[in-house]
Amino acid sequence: MKDFSEEELYDQKSAIAGLSFVGRMPKMSPKERAPIDQYQYPPQECSIKRRDKIFTFDEQKFGEVVGADPIARTVDIRKLMKLEAVHPRSVFAHSHYGTKEQANSILRVADWIVANGIGASGNYRAARDLLSRNPPRLSGGQCLIAAPRPGHC
After folding, report:
1. How many CB atoms lie within 10 A of CB 78?
2. Hey, how many other C-beta atoms are within 10 angstroms of the C-beta on 128?
3. DSSP strand E in the chain: where?
4. What DSSP element (H or E) covers 79?
5. Which residues, 6+ apart, have CB-to-CB distance to 50 below 8 Å?
6. Interatomic CA distance for residues 48 and 52, integer angstroms
7. Which of 18, 58, 59, 102 is 20 to 30 A from 143 via CA?
8. Could you give the CA distance from residue 145 to residue 152 in angstroms, rounded to a whole number?
9. How many CA atoms lie within 13 A of 1 on its CB side?
10. Whose CA is closest to 34, among 82, 68, 87, 79?
11. Cβ count within 10 A of residue 124
12. How far is CA 77 from the centre of its chain?
């Protein structure tokens, strides 16, 4: 997303463009160290929600969303301490799935294939079709291509 212009970011649901700093939210407890800043943004479709990790467009982690109000078009971000004085014009949310989660997912599919066979009906059909280089199919088993290869779909 770092290659998008600010104007193009208005069309990206995982980004917020045109942020303007509203103010620093009061601390909820004396133990709370990280600042929570509230920002307002102009009308745009936005899928950013509470608990999303937020990054600046130089791909630096900025903080975490602790509050979002799509009606008022505000977002409250618990910022990293080192970025306390930084107020970017645009940010984006990014979910990272670690390699452990990815590996476990692949192993679940592989275990199922070993137990049931790659062509059996049941779970992980899309993944098994992909591995077999079969065209995608609808939930009823119909092929999504007009003339599938013999033996596929």
Report:
1. 18
2. 19
3. 15-16, 20-24, 36-40, 53-55, 61-69, 74-79, 91-93
4. strand 74-79
5. 65, 66, 67, 68
6. 7
7. 102
8. 10
9. 24
10. 79
11. 19
12. 17
Q: What is the pLDDT of residue 110?
A: 94
Q: What average pLDDT is seen over the chain?
A: 87
| 96 residue type, one letter | H
Among 85, 108, 126, 90, residue whose Cα is nearest residue 5: 90
**Residue 8, number of CB atoms within 10 A of its CB:** 12
Measured between alpha carbons, how far is 36 from 34 in angstroms, rounded to an integer? 7
What was the pLDDT predicted at 148? 56
Residue 108, amino acid: R
Provide the H-helix boundaries in 26-76: none
